[in-house]
Design a protein that fits this description.
Elements (H helix, E strand, L loop, with lengths): L3 E12 L10 E17 L5 E3 L4 E3 L8 H14 L6 E7 L9 H16 L6 H16 L5 H6 L5 E3 L6 E2 L6 E7 L6 H14 L1 H23 L3 H17 L5 H12 L4 E5 L6 E5 L3 H14 L3 E7 L5
Parallel strand pairs: 3-5
Antiparallel strand pairs: 1-2, 2-5, 2-6, 3-4, 6-7, 8-10, 8-11, 9-10
Helix pairs in contact: 1-2, 1-3, 2-3, 5-6, 6-7
This protein binds (R)-mevalonate.
The site of (R)-mevalonate (MEV) has 15 residues, from helix 4 and helix 5.
Keywords: ATP-binding, Cytoplasm, Kinase, Lipid biosynthesis, Lipid metabolism, Magnesium, Nucleotide-binding, Transferase
GO molecular function, one term: ATP binding
InterPro entries: GHMP_kinase_C_dom, GHMP_kinase_C_sf, GHMP_kinase_N_dom, GHMP_knse_ATP-bd_CS, Mev_gal_kin, Ribosomal_Su5_D2-typ_SF, Ribsml_uS5_D2-typ_fold_subgr
Length: about 300
């Protein structure tokens, strides 16, 4: 039996996080600068996991790996493979708990590696269905946008219960992602918004609706190469996210600094309360300058990447 490999990139939410859990649209971008590789080998005995966090038999894996573990069981069942004789090595360059979709990427890389090991083809539905098992552990009530973006090569327009739509930007957009260095907990952030809805339904619903409206306008901005408009939408969405209580002092500090240094817009990305911010630079040169400045300002890690218009 051959060594089998599965890979997956990560994701960024451009706009619409949290509101997407409650039926609003969101835009997410595949983020190929960091990712996961899962390698499966035949090793007799019970199934073993080898990852940064844990090395040992799958049965004794810590609770934090419940998502992956359950995903492995479900995938093996689907593939009619016996639950033994495997070593699954997980190598990830995605910092966990930073809103970059690390949990979904790990699950998808592992599912793909098991299909490769079984020499079976998969459909996108297979991957999404199995990855959803893991995401339930990571997010509680996930919208599904992380898994969809991680299986997509193009920016994703996503609304629950609607077929997925892909966005083709009409211009080049230069983004910077800066890591606050602190881990966020998407599950508790999602739960805290759900609690707010219970306590002040009208007020919170109007904020979620507003994020939905901003997301529609952000799509128009991407499709009409309108950087300034997109920047404004990111800033407006950040205001709403702050009001929802999912931004924190560390994120705000990076966001305000990026704006002060000329970013057209900046906001948190992903679950919030820790994790990363995304900023829209004016152009490629500005993107490099801003990224250096954010590093000096204390961002834990900084990535710059461009969303390019498709060449025909
Ligand atoms: C997490 O990347 C995005 C959230 O909207 C949660 C979800 O959609 O499942 C915060």
């Amino acid at each position: 039996v051959q060594t089998a490999i599965g890979i997956a990139h990560s994701k960024l939410i451009l706009i619409g996080e949290h509101a997407v859990v409650h039926g609003q649209p969101a835009i997410a971008l595949p983020f190929p600068l960091v990712g996961v590789e899962a390698v499966v080998d035949y090793v007799p005995g019970s199934i073993k996991i080898d990852s940064t966090f844990y090395h040992g038999p799958i049965e004794s894996a810590p609770e934090s790996l419940d998502g992956v573990t359950n995903c492995v069981w479900a995938t093996l069942e689907k593939l009619d493979l016996p639950c033994e004789d495997l070593l699954i090595r997980i190598k990830s360059s995605i910092p966990p708990g930073k809103g970059l979709g690390s949990s979904a990427s790990v699950a998808i890389a592992v599912i793909r590696s098991l299909f490769a090991y079984a020499e079976r083809d998969y459909t996108e539905e297979d991957i999404l269905e199995l990855a959803a098992i893991s995401e339930k552990y990571a997010h509680g009530e996930p919208s599904g946008i992380d898994t969809l973006t991680i299986t997509s090569a193009l920016p994703v327009w996503y609304e629950k219960e609607h077929p997925i739509d892909r966005i083709e930007p009409k211009g080049d957009f230069h983004f910077i992602v800066a890591d606050s260095g602190r881990m966020g907990d998407t599950r508790s952030a999602v739960e805290s918004v759900a609690e707010l809805i219970k306590s002040a339904p009208k007020r919170i619903q109007s904020k979620l609706d507003r994020i939905g409206e901003l997301t529609h306008r952000a799509r128009n901005a991407l499709e009409s190469a309108s950087k300034h408009l997109l920047g404004q939408m990111l800033n407006e969405a950040q205001k709403e996210l702050e009001a929802l209580g999912v931004s924190d002092a560390g994120l705000n500090r990076l966001i305000y600094f990026a704006r002060q240094e000329g970013a057209l817009g900046a906001k948190l990305t992903g679950g919030g309360n820790g994790g990363c911010v995304i900023a829209l630079a004016r152009n490629e040169v500005h993107s490099r300058q801003l990224s250096e400045k954010l590093k000096k300002f204390g961002a834990h890690a900084v990535w710059s990447f461009a969303l390019k218009k498709k060449m025909d």
